Amino acid sequence: MATHIELNRTGDKMPIVGFGCWKVEKDCADTIYNAIKAGYRLIDGAAAYENEVEVGQGIARAIQEGIVKREDLFVVSKLWNTDHHKDHVRPAFDRTLKDMGLDYIDLYLVHFPIPVKHVDPKVQYPGGWENPETKKMEYQRSPLHLCWAEMEKLVDAGLVRNIGISNTNVMMLLDMFSYCRYKPATLQVELHPYLQQNNLVRWVQSQDVAITAYSSFGPASYVQLNEAGKTAKPLLTHETIEQVAKKYSKSPAQVLLRWSVQRNVAVIPKSMNVDRMKANLDLFDWTLEDEDIKTINSLEMGARFNDTLEYGIDLPLFD
């Protein structure tokens, strides 16, 4: 089983298992350092996670101690909604680069295909969903093709090796293919047995665009955020997943991650526990049999947990 996915255009090898920084505590420098020490080479961050300074500190410590060289790491960040305007993409990226203390980013994503009215970083950083003054989400006339052109300029400047997008669909990608100079290298979306998105995964991969799954454990990350996360049966304690895990003498988390990896889909789990960090990397010397894949697939229920409507935002983004 391959441990990396080769990206279009650059041929860069993106680790198929990375460490996700969403909902990792802000004071997370030690966590990131421990993740790298445990063997993670992809660190998936974003300005909106409000911890890029500390993520950079963890990376710097690992490099200073000789655990890795910068070129051994694959660092990901994301452009937030309030910075889609062509005049704000580069300043937003420069802030990320400065906060993380890096010279370049391996993969920079458009976090959501939602252009929101710009907020001065001096007023609020990172910007939120709602304007801090009006307390409403205000859209901005910033077409994605202009935003993407600025993303491509970051590549031209040698500041970003690969660019991609997140939280979008086939129609948006099809439109991007009609104007982009650099095709998106990756699409990052919510994927787990409750939301398998098989047609999306199949088509996007057929277009030589890699898929990264977030929220591989389903509702686990959303219990404190919305009603859907509270009411859905946790996948980590679901009897079906537990039975499969027992068969292979693995944890439910390992089974859920392996299920995605066998689809050639990258995963970005997080854990603050070093033993679980290591376990989540232990996915490559065993394989789920077809009958167990079918059993897990039977859990499909179209349950999306990272949904703007669930957050009280009147935007049916995924409809």
Describe the sheet with the most strands: 8 strands, parallel
* Relative helix content: 25-40%
Based on Cα principal axes, name the global outline: globular
Structural class computed from helices and strand pairing: alpha/beta
| CATH class value | Alpha Beta
Identify the CATH homologous superfamily. Answer: NADP-dependent oxidoreductase domain
* Rounded radius of gyration (Å): 19 Å
Distance linking N and C termini: 35 Å
Number of domains: 1
Binding site for substrate: 111
GO molecular function: D-xylose reductase (NADPH) activity; mRNA binding
Site (Lowers pKa of active site Tyr): 78
Active site: 49
Task: Walk me through the topology.
Blueprint: E1 4-6, E2 13-15, E3 19-20, H1 29-38, E4 42-44, H2 52-64, E5 74-79, H3 89-100, E6 105-110, H4 144-156, E7 160-166, H5 170-177, E8 186-190, H6 198-206, E9 210-214, H7 227-231, H8 239-248, H9 252-261, E10 266-267, H10 274-281, H11 290-297
Parallel strand pairs: 3-4, 4-5, 5-6, 6-7, 7-8, 8-9, 9-10
Antiparallel strand pairs: 1-2
Helix pairs in contact: 1-2, 2-3, 8-9
What does this structure look like?
This protein has helices at residues 29-38, 52-64, 89-100, 144-156, 170-177, 198-206, 227-231, 239-248, 252-261, 274-281, 290-297, and strands spanning 4-6, 13-15, 19-20, 42-44, 74-79, 105-110, 160-166, 186-190, 210-214, 266-267. It is built from 11 helices and 10 strands. Helix 2 (52-64) crosses helix 3 (89-100) and helix 8 (239-248) crosses helix 9. It has a single domain, classed as TIM Barrel (Alpha-Beta Barrel). The chain has 319 residues and is an alpha/beta fold. Helix content is 33%, strand content 13%. The model has no long low-confidence stretch (mean pLDDT 96). The longest helix is centred in the N-terminal third of the chain and has 13 residues, at 52-64. Strands 3-4-5-6-7-8-9-10 form an 8-stranded parallel beta sheet. It has a two-stranded antiparallel ribbon with strand order 1-2. The relative contact order is 0.13.
